[in-house]
Amino acid sequence: MNARAALFDLYGDHLRSRGGRASVAALVRLLAPLEIAAPAVRTAVSRMVRQGWLTPTRLPQGPGYEATPKCVRRLDETALRIYRAGAVAWSGRWHLLTVEPVRDRARRERLRASLSFLGYAPLAEGTWIGPRPSPELDTLLDGEEVRAHRFEAVLDGDPRALVARTWDLGAIAAAYEEWLARAVELVDSLPDGAADDRVFAVRSRLLHGWRNFLFRDPGLPAELLPAGWPGEKARAYFEQEAARLLPAASAFVERHLTEP
Nearest-CA neighbor of 118 among 142, 139, 143? Predict the structure, then answer.
């Protein structure tokens, strides 16, 4: 887990509900159980400021950083996808984008990664499809200064065949199975009565591994997935263990947020 990813997880899972801010010293202390050194934390924070995710602020505990409105939107949307409540209804309509060409390679790759994170996949050069419109799409396109035409469409054909051509469901299923095996091993390594810093570290690693699926799994409706889809079993385990470990992890965060 790198420092930037750990900071996003920390702000989204703990700090968003506590005002979205923390002192520099607190950020360093909170990432120490993940074996992330202070210089790496400060470098990642500086990078996130340049990218518009964090902004400097003055706190009673000293200088700190607060989530920007752009960051808050991303954290809230991510939380909805991580802690999804119940089955997501599908209208049977697809969301299509035709994106204008992006000549700069770095921008083009960043745009592709961001669209994948929002649940879209390429149908052809410049054309993307997703099972539903993303609330973050406007922010993404505005930030990258890219124009796109948008359509809602009903497929004339078998949607399962479209899904099979567009997303590698076999690879996604295998990734879920591998994650679940490793997650069980990780959680089982935590002894009864473990200190809250160890619980925080285990839960953070559990969350980080699960969050990576937001880049791979577009959240397809259940009716388009194969029977016995392993993502549901993996989700049930994540939600159960994330909730069970939350009180001790939260106690660790609260203690270090209030220290000078």
Answer: 139
Strands in the chain per DSSP E = 21-23, 54-59, 62-67, 94-99, 121-124, 127-130, 148-153
Summarised one tens digit per residue, pLDDT across range 195-248 is 999 999 999 999 999 998 888 888 888 889 988 999 989 999 999 999 999 999
- Beta strand 127-130 with 62-67: parallel, antiparallel or unpaired? unpaired
pLDDT, tens digit, 9 for 90 and up, residues 1-53: 899 999 999 999 999 999 999 999 999 999 999 999 999 999 999 999 999 99
State phi, psi for 29 to the nearest 5 degrees: -65, -40
Cα–Cα distance for residue pair 176/72, rounded to 1 Å: 28
Q: Report CA dihedral (248, 249, 250, 255) to the nearest 10 degrees.
A: 90
Both tokens of 67, joined, read 């989530």
DSSP string, 119-167: T-EEEETTEEEESS--TTHHHHHHHHT--EEEEEE--SS-HHHHHHHHS
Cα dihedral 180, 177, 225, 151 sign: positive
pLDDT, one tens digit per residue, over 47-93 is 999 999 999 999 988 899 999 998 998 898 888 878 875 556 788 89
Residue identified by tokens 């209030």 is: 258
SS3 11: helix
